[in-house]
Amino acid sequence: MNHDLLGRWSPGRFLGDLASGRYTENELEAFRCLDAIQFRPRSEAQEQLLRLFFSGESCARESAEEALPTSFDELVDLGILEEKGERVRSHYRIRAYPEGYLAEDFPKRLLDSPEDFVMGVAPTSRMVRKLIPDIEPDSVLDLCCGGGWIGLTEALAGREVTACDLNPRALQIAELNQRLLGGPEISWRQGAWLEPVAGERFDLIVANPPFVQSPGGSSVALDTPEQENVATALLPQLAEHLNPGGFACMLLDWQFASSDRWQAIPAAAIPDSGVQSLLFEVQRKSPEEYAHHWLGQDPRFQDDDARRPEIRRWVEYYERRRTRGISSGFVILRKCEVGEEFHFEESRGITHFLPQTGEEIGRFFRNQGWLRNHSGSLLDVNFTRVNGIRKTEGAVMGREGWETDTMQITSPACLLYDGHIDPALLRILEAASEGIPVRSVLDELAGMVGADSQAIAPQVEELVRELLIRTLIIPVERKD
User: Model confidence over 341-373: pLDDT tens digits?
Assistant: First the structure.
């Protein structure tokens, strides 16, 4: 790619040609779902654009010029298109996303050049962005940025963004994406982990590093460098690059030798001092399941004859390390003053993050801060119940009709609470909805269990504390 020309390039003509040829998000989704055999292009231009920018096929030069009537020459000059005789091909797949058009590598490049393969907007990228607490950071670091989608979306929201990646080719594609989206300037840095930002601090760090726990390191976009643990490499350093009160959000996978201590590796890597942390395990797989999961997505190993020895190689690697399982999850860190630390660990199966996830994480840290500073009994505080809590009931058919058997509630993002609830806990939540302190319903709660109100007061206060930590209630005095 011609970097000098890219810096001066305005993509308006190219974007206009794509729109005129109906190379749009909806059309691409239809093409992807139906496949090339069933899909019927709406025009010759659309067919050529799909061949060039989605399928990675070459087409006749004349056909490409007709499909790109105003931008063909500039795309050749930039190095996005390559001419070979009378044929033309694109070096990059161009995808239409809700944010706009973005470039990425064609999947077939993973077969030939896995060492510098650049993914598109992966599901994990959208997942980690949903983890960002509901804050308004001025400065953001997009760590292991790949094609730059996270950093670009933060820049479009008005943040000052720095983005770094080990793969120089990823940064080239990220700069192309910056031009395609028309976003503000970003400081792109090349280097390993946090080396490119030595001595710098940020209000927010978002990290989606290569976390796949494989024996190889053959794909810089996916695999953890051989024999290197992402948690050990990054978690001790992240807080050093945060401004006071700043947050770091990171996805990671890690191996464990005992299911009783699933959190051992990442928990040991989190600094004890000056950091508040939320460590969450969302999935756990056996070595065999993990190998099948990742190799099943890799185009290099779709053939059974190729996949079997590779799975065996992975499993033998885990056996040498005495690995019992591999966990997937995330870590949220907040830079705090010494003496304000807390470390919270949770494990629950979650397949996707809801849009409310960042708000719930922000509320978790605010509630923890309020608890630390609060003096006096929680029974005398006016709380309010957060919006969006869901309650479901299970019932059994009795002699007189349906009878409630179980009740379950979930927090708005289904993250920090998803479990059964008894009538006493439900009454505490109702007190919060009514804006009255829990002490005013203490006698009622005692009657539910046939106990003295003063005797159960300590247990009820612990229930209130748990509801705060699980973000189901917040103090009325605090405005979120």
Answer: 999 999 999 988 999 999 999 999 999 999 999
Q: Is residue 136 part of a domain?
A: yes
H-helix segments, 116-229: 123-130, 149-156, 168-181
Residue 340 predicted with pLDDT over 70: yes
pLDDT category at 130 given cuts 50, 70, 90 is very high
Confirm whether 426 is domain-assigned: yes
H helices of 286-396, in order, are 287-295, 304-320, 357-373
pTM comes to 0.92
Are residues 83 and 38 part of one domain? yes
The closest of 290, 316, 257, 300 to 108, measured between CA atoms, is 300
Residue 467 covered by a domain: yes
Amino acid in the structure at residue 15: L
**CATH number of the domain residue 117 falls in:** 3.40.50.150
pLDDT at residue 86, rounded to an integer = 95
Q: Is 469 exposed, middle or buried (0-12, 13-18, 19+ CB in 10 A)?
A: middle
CA distances from 457 to 147, 290, 440, 446 (A): 55, 47, 11, 9
Residue 330 phi, psi (nearest 5): -150, 160
81-to-52, 68, 72, 328 alpha-carbon distances in Å: 9, 11, 8, 39
Domain that holds residue 151: 108-353
Alpha carbons 309 and 296: distance in angstroms, whole number: 13
Q: Same domain for 134 and 257?
A: yes
